[in-house]
Write a structure and sequence with these properties.
432 residues; mainly alpha; globular; binds zinc ion; metal ion binding; metal-binding; LanC-like protein 2
């Protein structure tokens, strides 16, 4: 629910109306890039490099500083009483945001950076005492607290803790490679979410010495599970995954999320072993795409409804941008471009401004394409969605859990902060 502070401070300069054909979205009130270029270009400057205007950067910084206080007043004090320690909707999500802020925009201001890292440290200390010992994944499992503890130890120069927490993270591999239980494989709870932890630490904290053999083992298990289920259900696609006995397609619970992590694993490891399966899955996903550019929620669905990161084109466009970067196959880029056009039209969804199913998460589609193409139009699109997150108080909707990383305000702040350092911007818990 929008807070009093938000209502007082920001008044949108644009009209908010329902989308003419999509009842789940608002109509995009912004001029498209070509019209905007002929009228106002105050958001971006195109010279040798494409940069965001100082005014807009200041607007983002002001909003972040103000809304961090809102989180502090409404959420932070209550964290110690909450059971949810996950990155997705719990205290560790806030720890992730604070580590990002401590390493990023406040880097030059050591006092502020130190304060963010201290807050992250306190949250993680409590979370480590209460790990669930159930799921290995980053977003909804124990992989989150251990991975963030490693990132935090690196940010604070604590080498002993890097080794200690890495051992805990590695220990979780039993859930994936040794368990006789038929565990989930998807990103949110399952083995793909654990593989994300290993790959993120491998990339950002080389001194943690994540073993390549372990990464390979976990990737192989994911592929084996995918082949097994695919063979039991039918010959196409070559890999299939289920969550709660349903075969989803999108980033959070479905095939696209697992294939994205496998593709990153293959790229980071310099291995082409699983590429044939990955390419066949990409082809299959292209085949089930709707004419609009969106994707079904589950295999067999025909309703073009959900357009957000967890279900629909925004989460899947991340996969196709990566597929284009790795293979240079132009048709994968075209799929991502089509998704971005659709998100520009229908992506201001009424669910709110969150990452998982909200405007901030949808805006990452444009950041992906900007990073891949350096086309200023996508940066313009992302900034207009940022403007919506900042100004469209009445249209922000009512997030399920209003201050959290994946379903609330903390996620919108994470996205806005990523705009200040686009080269290193990455959808948290997913993009590598
Ligand atoms: Zn969602």
């Amino acid at each position: 629910m929008a807070t009093e502070t938000e209502d007082k401070e920001f008044v949108p300069t644009f009209e908010i109306k329902s989308h003419p054909t999509d009842i789940r979205a608002y109509q995009n009130p912004f001029p498209d890039y070509m019209s905007a270029m002929s009228n106002e270009t105050s958001l971006i400057h195109i010279a040798q490099e494409i940069v965001i205007s100082t005014d807009f950067i200041n607007k983002i910084k002001y909003f972040i500083a103000e809304q961090l206080e809102v989180i502090g007043d409404n959420y932070l004090d209550k964290l110690s009483y909450q059971d949810d320690k996950t990155v997705y909707t719990g205290s560790c999500g806030l720890a992730f945001l604070y580590i990002k802020l401590g390493n990023g925009m406040y880097k030059r201001d050591s006092k502020a950076a130190k304060s963010f890292l201290e807050m992250a440290g306190e949250i993680l200390e409590t979370a480590r005492d209460e790990v669930y010992k159930a799921y290995p994944a980053f977003l909804m499992g124990d992989g989150g607290p251990w991975t963030l503890s490693i990132l935090h130890a690196q940010a604070t120069g604590d080498k002993d803790s890097i080794a200690k927490y890495t051992a805990e993270l590695v220990h979780l591999h039993h859930h994936v490679v040794c368990s006789k239980k038929n565990n989930e494989d998807e990103l949110l709870y399952g083995s793909a979410g654990y593989l994300y932890c290993l790959l993120l630490v491998r990339k950002l904290v080389p001194e943690a010495n994540i073993n390549d053999e372990l990464v390979k083992k976990v990737s192989d298990v994911l592929v084996e599970h995918g082949i097994k289920l695919a063979q039991s259900l039918g010959p196409i696609p070559p890999l299939m995954y289920s969550f709660a006995a349903k075969q989803y397609i999108g980033a959070a619970h479905g095939l696209a999320g697992v294939v994205y992590i496998l593709l990153c694993s293959a790229e980071l490891m310099g291995s082409n072993e699983n590429m044939d399966n990955i390419i066949s899955c990409l082809e299959y996903l292209q085949g089930v795409k709707y004419a609009s550019g969106n994707f079904p929620t589950q295999f067999g669905d025909t309703d073009d409804m959900r357009l957000h990161w967890c279900h629909g084109a925004p989460g899947i466009a991340v996969l196709f941008c990566k597929a284009y970067s790795v293979t240079h196959n132009i048709k994968y880029l075209k799929t991502a471009v089509q998704a971005a056009r659709l998100v520009w039209d229908r992506g201001l969804i009424k669910k709110g401004i969150s990452l998982c199913h909200g405007v901030a998460g949808n805006a990452y589609t444009f950041l992906q394409l900007f990073k891949v193409t350096q086309d200023a139009e996508y940066l313009y699109n992302a900034l207009k969605f940022a403007e919506w997150c900042i100004d469209a108080t009445k249209a922000r909707g009512r997030p399920d859990r209003p201050f959290t990383l994946f379903e609330g305000l903390a996620g919108a702040i994470y996205f806005l902060n990523d705009l200040l350092d686009i080269k290193n911007a990455a959808f948290p818990g997913y993009e590598l």
